[in-house]
From TrEMBL:
Name used for this protein in its record: EDD domain protein, DegV family
Gene Ontology molecular functions: lipid binding
Keyword line: Lipid-binding
Organism: Ligilactobacillus ruminis ATCC 25644
Functional description taken from the UniProt entry: May bind long-chain fatty acids, such as palmitate, and may play a role in lipid transport or fatty acid metabolism.
Amino acid sequence: MMKNIILKKDLKIMIKKIISDSGANVLHLDDASFENIPLTIHVDGTDYQDDASLSVNELIEALHQNDEKTSTACPSIAQWQKAFEGADEIYVITITSVLSGSYNSAVQAASLYREDHPETKIHVIDSLSAGPEMELIIDKLKELIAAGLNFDEICAKINAYKEKTHLNFALESLDNLAKNGRISPAVAKVAKMLKIRIIGRPDDGKLTPIGKARGAKKTISYLIKDMEEHGFSNGRVIIAHILNEEGANNLKQTILDKHPEASVEIRNARGLCTYYAQKGGLMVGYEA
């Protein structure tokens, strides 16, 4: 694992580390000390660890075949504490605390760890979001660390940057929501039959529907319109998709047609985002 190492004036090696739970879809980070802490997805008696060993296709098939309620479990305090070991400055980012206990677990772990390591500095960020918006924040942390800023400067700048990032999502399948009692099975069936996508964004950390669109083209138009209404112009965009590369590419091209100076990247979603956004889903993180 590569590490961000800075030599202090007294020649003590300073190790700065970024840690995220698996809600970010990030397994590794080039030229930085980074660790992914997996959440667990429970489906029909089987536990799926959201790490590099997970087959997203296998998870999707298991969710499709299952008719019972499913659930997720956040990382334990011990998992977070183990990840903290050996670092002097630690920057933690978690999936929204409204969906998961990951943030609270990380905060408790940081408090306990500081009791035995009072010299260690830890900043825990509740993303109030998921997926590609979390990745934008992780990349910004990497940039700030590489710039040689001190801990307080990095904390202030990353908190300010977080206010300028956003997330939108479009759900093609509502099956998992229906199985978990979030919506009526009849509504999910009708939406699928009519090719209706549910579009939403986080509202104080709660992933909230804001509208619906029928068909892929109208979905893309709705997503971009909402992005623009929230300040998007020519910033950076990360699109995460769940077995919907065509939809992601069409969204990317439409964004670039309207905003040619934007930077748009496409990612495959990992386990947790697949669990929530489901097959065909799109998640869009962007800078305003």
